[in-house]
TrEMBL record:
This protein's name: Aspartate aminotransferase family protein
Species, as recorded: Chitinophaga lutea
Pfam families assigned to the protein according to its UniProt record, in alphabetical order: Pyridoxal_deC
Cofactor(s) this protein cannot do without: pyridoxal 5'-phosphate
Gene3D superfamilies named among the record's database cross-references: Aspartate Aminotransferase, domain 1 (3.90.1150.10), Type I PLP-dependent aspartate aminotransferase-like (Major domain) (3.40.640.10)
UniProt record similarity statement: Belongs to the group II decarboxylase family.
Top-level taxon of origin: Bacteria
Record PTM N6-(pyridoxal phosphate)lysine, positions in chain: K293
Presence of the UniProt keyword Lyase in the record: yes
SUPFAM superfamilies in the record: PLP-dependent transferases
Listed GO biological process terms: amino acid metabolic process; carboxylic acid metabolic process
Keywords for this protein: Aminotransferase, Decarboxylase, Lyase, Pyridoxal phosphate, Transferase
GO MF annotation list: carboxy-lyase activity; pyridoxal phosphate binding; transaminase activity
Amino acid sequence: MNATFRHDLLQLNELLQQTASYAGSFLSRINELKVNLPVPSFPATVLPEKGMGAEAALEHFDNRFGDYLTGNAGPRYFGFVTGGVTPAALTGDWLAATFDMNPADKSAVSFHIETETIDLLKQLFGLPDEMLGSFVSGATMSNFTGLATARQWLGRQQGVDVDIAGASALKDVKVLAATPHSSIAKALSMLGLGRNALVKLPTLPGREAVDVSALQAWINAHPGEPFIYVASAGTVNTVDFDDLAAIAALKKEHNFWLHVDAAFGGFAAASPRYKHLLRGWEAADSVTIDAHKWLNVPYDAAMIFTRHPLLQLAVFQNAGAAYLGDPAENFNYINYAPENSRRLRSLPAWFSLKAYGAEGYRDMVEQNIRLAQLLGERIQKSERFQLLAPVRLCVVCFTLNHEPRMLAEHVQLFLQKLNKRGLVYVTPTQYQGVSAIRAALVNWRTTEQDIDKVMEELETVAADIAHLSAIIENN
């Protein structure tokens, strides 16, 4: 054994204690850490001929990068839709790395951990028992997997096995949606269906939800034509939901695949107050739900649920690999999702679900929604901002109360200044043609005190932008 490996092995317990201490120090400060910092251009590094050992590597890491670590998993990071990491999920993630087990190995307990975790998640979401679930790396890959299975279904409607003949054998593919996430078009590109296959339907007035009558009209204009419909169960800008019950009713009469993108909106199912938004999703053919969002487990983790395992198997099976066994006879997760090599992503989720239960997730979801609504109310009352849409769940969509001709420029300046200061992080967006700002609250740590701090910071930066604008105009 190499001498440095041997030294680290003998010092392993001490190294783990040092690592735990370093992690604990970071987490003890996460509530007050800046959520954004300017990062310098680091000088080029050289691979050492002789390694320095783990203890020295930890010290070197701290010296090189430690001052630039930010609280992206903290209570005021409202960018994207990023959850934090619960203490139990962190425990599970550390152990997943420690055990380093492949859940594809059916002879190992890791396979049963994933199976049990999927069952727990179906209970949390109220999804049908007959749905097959598996872990993937994120919502993008979940949407990809669901749409790959839908592509196989579409081929069968046209008398084609796409897994054998390829996507080029399909004719006139149509994928309908009203306000799809960008990962839908990305998945269509990766699947060889092309971004042009996406047909965007009209939305309800002032909403991001589909106008179901427009969907009905499209179906009437294309009688008997099979297609894929991607339903929104929580849009990015306003967490709007398609009327899933109405779409499910159409599905009973017409031949289409229903994929529900519920990356974070699916967690409404954890709350009796909000689960009605998902009424009808039990009729879906496939469902995307992200775990490193509102489940608050570490990156990267998401789930795909489908009710067509044979179609899924046709796409993702490892046919002809004798050492993996017969895919048709021996169930294995690697035959139902893109990755063969998979870390034990289910373990952080298992720990968090067991540690906090349905009540814990219900309370977290409802608290985040309450805080988002509080932020929305305070923005609406402010003279410096304009709330652009009702706060339906956990995202606040707003803009500056400035004249339209300078709005885009002022929003850009506002975000640059706000995010540079580092107390809160929000992202730019466009909502109904308006330059806007988006804050997503899905972190278990966020409190009302954080909303107070954020609102004070928003007001301060908005006042600075208004003052700067006045100076420029007067000159």
